[in-house]
Amino acid sequence: MNRSERRRYEKEFPKALKKAGDNCGICRKPLQHNSRTFGGVLADGQAALAGECCQNQLDVVMGSGIYINQNTDAIMDALGQMKGRSDGEPVSDALEASKRLQKGIGGLEDFVERAKQRAGVTGPVQRISLTDTPWKTDDAQWFESHPGRSHRLRPMHPGEEETLPPEIKDAAIPEGHRWEILVRQIKKGQRVRSAFCRDTRTEIPDVEAVIHAIFDTVARAQHAGTITVEEIAALAKRYHIPEGSAPN
């Protein structure tokens, strides 16, 4: 490819992406989540985005990437935390790099799905944290020192609120309430966080069955509105709460 052909490609390819970036530019089939895409030039010199279905129809392949349309924010955030990691091996080939990226995203999603199933959590994942943070360290130490516990309710750490979804950060909460964090430890090193709008006028005993009941109630995707003391007390009794430890 000569210089003028490259300039033509660099000018036309962004237009092709903008026009139909969710479809293969050759057969027009919708691109599938976590599928490889290929930017290149057809035999007539036209720039095109091809899916895996039509890769071989490109006369020249200029680059390769991955198409994602599920859990996009969580995946992009996790990939940002992984920048610079390539198992110690440089990746100079764009085609090989996209293969690795596709495999990495698939592995990440499988890991998250297994963790969600074990945690009993439904709904989309908002953030996947792969790096150390003060709250992760604190949670790890807390569960280490409380071996009989799988659930915890705690205040937010400085800076932790910035990791919450926009709909939570921007939500108007009633007077006398504040955001706190529910944590469920699946196993050592794997934990799930959920934001909880707590009524500070209600005493919540630091008892496993009570915090377990609150976590399960908040984690239900269909749950919305106020959580009542009676609702939590009834569920906590099913978790063998000691008499006299119900919230009041």
Describe what this molecule looks like in 3D.
Residues 145-164 are annotated as: Disordered. The chain is of the alpha+beta class and 248 residues long. It folds into two domains: 3-113, no CATH class; 134-239, no CATH class. The protein has helices at residues 3-20, 72-81, 94-119, 134-145, 166-169, 208-219, 229-238, and strands spanning 35-41, 47-51, 60-67, 151-155, 177-187, 190-199. The strands form two sheets. A three-stranded antiparallel β-sheet has the order 2-1-3. The chain has a three-stranded antiparallel β-sheet with strand order 4-5-6. The N and C termini lie far apart (75 Å).
Mean pLDDT: 84
The proportion of residues forming helix, as a percent range, comes to 25-40%
Ends distance: 75 Å
Strand content: 15-25%
- Helix count equals 7
What gyration radius follows from the Cα positions, in whole Å?
A: 24 Å
From N to C, what is the helix and strand string? HEEEHHHEHEEHH
What are the low-pLDDT stretches, counting only 5+ consecutive residues below 50?
Answer: none
| Overall geometry | elongated
Number of separate domains: 2
Q: What is the number of strand segments?
A: 6
Sheet of most strands: 3 strands, antiparallel
Largest sheet: spatial strand order? 2-1-3
Kindly name the structural category. Answer: alpha+beta
